[in-house]
Amino acid sequence: MEVRSDGIPVRCDKIPAPVIPRTRLQVWFIRVCSSILLWTCLVQLVAVGELWHPHLFSNITNRISQITLVPLHVEEAIQSPPPLLTARKYKSNGFLRVSCNGGLNQMRAAICDMVTVARLLNLTLVVPELDKKSFWADPSNFEDIFDVRHFIDSLRDEVRIIRRLPKRFNRKHGHKPLQMPPISWSNENYYVQQILPLFKKHRVLHFNKTDARLSNNGIPLDLQRLRCRVNFQALKFTPQIETLGYKLVRILQEKGPFVALHLRYEMDMLAFSGCTRGCFEKEAEELKRMRYAYIWWRDKEIDSELRRSQGLCPLTPEEASLVLQALGFEKNTQIYIAAGEIYGSERRLSALRAAYPLIVKKEMLLAPEELQQFQNHSSQMAALDFMVSVASNTFIPTYDGNMAKLVEGHRRYLGFKRTILLDRRKLVELLDMHQNGTLSWDEFAVAVQSAHEKRMGQPSRRRVVADKPKEEDYFYANPQECLCEGTSCDDLLSPGNSSAIG
Fold this sequence. Notes:
This protein is of the alpha/beta class. 43% of the residues lie in helices and 7% in strands.
């Protein structure tokens, strides 16, 4: 006890030692280490959950993805994501792994079919693998083209979808999944009776070919509508693709109405079909060599003129020019070429460009640096053309391939937007008659317009061919069950749907 100078005693407790402050570097080091440790634990926890029970941690992963998503500069207004659907609870009968084959749109239809098969058989679907060995040699994965998180979440009330197989089913762990291509144009009975029992034995089934493996007709209504839901809602392109696609559409729309011409006069199509109309002899030989180089192109020796007369060849750019004029499209019509490199390049486009000076391609509308990320990725480039084609005022395919059919169906889904489906067999006949002087221009134009009066994408029943499903109208070109209330589209037929040309 001490005494102050004024005589008042003062209690003296032990004075604490001075606290040495931590340096700023030490504080930051501790924070960084703690953050790394915390995130490592979370990632490991989620990974284990995905492998052993994919939906146990779905809410956690959604929260994490919302927090860590890098903000993108998207010029279009982006709506907040819809509330997460309640996951469908079911006992999975096994894991379905699929490898899609073909180009973007062939793979897109296959994905829709495979989701539907997984739903029918109560399977867990692994995110589909995309073709990397086709003519286009595109290295893109599913997540490079489609928004994989949206794909999984938007279908979680129907099908359980995981990004990859659990490790215990990998080859490294000695598991050998059964690989096979399902039979084409099959209905639900085939999958229930012949495919489902295979899962009891193998647990994992790998479909190594997936194109056209589900019938067009005779499928239950709920499965048909699921195919549409996958196609029109779940298969959403990545933000990078959508941003650039919307920009292309906006640039075109600011200049007025536009036509999307799917000019399928590309090297692979000409080689595959054997169509060489308008080609030099050297070019015809080049196409033939290419056809022989790919073993899956079964027809090697092809009579080009015979195929053309049967309507099995895409229109040439010169023929397309005459048909557009005959249909009444004026010279100032804005035309977007939805295609890859035209065979013969600008030489073959000269007649079409002379008739329609306002011809543009994505390479003309966008800066090189904007397209650079998509170079050598044909499926991603095709996705841009797909978006523009769906949004166009008029869509005209010169060949009825997979893109033409899927765009046609998408435009029907959006309210039967005008899609001119060219009757190539009739057109070849009329073109030859006009060019040899048998038909005057006026007679030619009247005949062309008359032949296409009912080929404008109006509501119509999907054609059924008994016992020949491959010859029926393609489901994705006319998904009738998803377009109309009830069993018929007849009530939708009206003068407004006749799609007058102009």
